[in-house]
Amino acid sequence: MLFILSFGVVAHEMQVTFLDDNQDKVYFDGDILSVSVTSKEFSSLPKDNPLSLEPVLFLSDCGKEYVSSHFLDDIFIERRDKHCFDISGTLVYPDTMGVMGLRIRVGSEYVVGPFPLIDSSLMEAGSDYGMAITGVAVPGDSLCMYPPLSTFDNLYAIEDTLCFIRRDVGRICIPPGCNVIDHLGALRTISSALSIVTDEKEGLFYAEIDSVSAKLLSQRNAQITLHGIPLTEPVVRSVPFGENAHDTSSLSEKILQAVFLEDTTVHFSVNNVRRYSLMEAYEVVSDRSGTVSAHPDIALQYRPSVQKVYFRLPFSGTPTLRLYTLQGEQVHTQQVASKMRRGHNSISLSEVALQQRMYLAAVEIDDGQGRFFSGARVILVQP
Question: Do 334 and 296 sit in the same domain of this protein?
Answer without folding.
Answer: yes
